[in-house]
Amino acid sequence: MKCKICKDKAEIYLRSYNLALCREDFIHFFERKVKRSIEQWKMFTRKEKILVAVSGGKDSLGLLHLLGKLGYDVTGYYINLGIDGYSDVSQNKVKEFSRSSGIMILIEDVRVSWGTGIGDLAKKVRRPPCSLCGMVKRYLMNRAAVEFDAMATGHNQDDETATLLGNLLRWDKGYLARQSPVLKEKRGLKKRVKPLSFITERESAAYALMEGIDYIMEECPLAKGATSLFYKGILNQLEEKMPGTKSRFLKGFLEYQRNHPLIEEEEELVACKRCGSLTTSEVCNFCRLEDKIKS
Ligand code: SF4
Ligand code: ZN
Predict the structure, then answer these.
(1) Are strands 278-279 and 270-271 parallel, antiparallel or unpaired?
(2) What residues pair up with 159 in beta bridges, in sequence order?
């Protein structure tokens, strides 16, 4: 198969575009697509300081690499969640990336303050690991983002469509109202952006490989049985039969949402008595968790 642009040997075939591309033209295609999302959704400018959350995986490291390459002011942020056989490997990938790219990455380790990882902690407090992990990551990221203008994550189109499907199946209006590639700064939370929202998992993996990024290939072992993986499987089956389904599903929703915005019911927020972050109760979930750990 030949590259549609330069007629050299194609390295990748993108079925939903019916497009075969060589390495160089694919990289160009990918970077232009992300740049267009950043501009169309007015995510950020080169004057803003962006904190990019990295996990050591292809999406987040690829995003940090790409934003650095495009000249944005980026810093990485990594949380070691103390997950056996996974976190230390991912931290090494992140450190190696920082060393070779020259991009600074801030590193936090939950075991330093809690003496244990997220898996053990979830058992202790009897919560599903991903829900506890999500809460902890959100809190720590918001705290780390204080000195930045925006917080970027590497969620790709497969992540976003799986989340959308889950939110629709539950008719979760609050989450649906907030599902967007960009969430403006609001109520003490920094602007949140997802520049890879329209990039497929496969495109993201191909970009990381072609750009020589060494990332962790294994999934987090605690993700086993997570409903998001089940939704991804269903969406993959749909995509297989009807190429372009995921993209139409997500873009259609965002278009509808733009014309008929769902209004998020806003609970009253107060400052957490311990840490001062905005919360709906006297003491925020994170501080309550810390109390439980101590007792
Ligand atoms: Fe955390 Fe779950 Fe993601 Fe693992 S899969 S990093 S536990 S949210
Ligand atoms: Zn608190």
Answers:
(1) antiparallel
(2) none
Q: Which protein residues have their CB within 5 A of the ion that is ligand 2? A: 272, 274-275, 284, 287
Token readout for 111 is 């075991």
User: Nearest CA to 104 among 125, 78, 132?
Assistant: 78
Q: Write the CB contacts of 17 (distance below 8 Å, at least 6 apart in sequence).
A: none
Quick check: CB of 134 below 6 Å from ligand 1? yes
Task: Please give the structure tokens belonging to residue 94.
Answer: 């992140």
AA identity, residue 178: R
Please give the distance, rounded to the nearest whole angstrom, from the Cα atom of residue 15 to the centre of ligand 1: 30
Residue 265's pLDDT is what? 76
Is the distance from CB of 218 to CB of 87 less than 8 angstroms?
no
Tokens of 53: 């959350």
Whether ligand 1 lies within 6 angstroms of the CB of 223 is answered as yes
157 close to 197: Cβ distance less than 8 angstroms: yes
What does pTM read for this prediction? 0.94
Q: Is 288 exposed, middle or buried (0-12, 13-18, 19+ CB in 10 A)?
A: middle
Cα–Cα nearest to 193, from 39, 66, 31, 44: 44
Place of tokens 């959100």: 138
What digits encode the pLDDT tens for the residues 45-97? 999 999 999 999 999 999 999 999 999 999 999 999 999 989 999 999 999 99
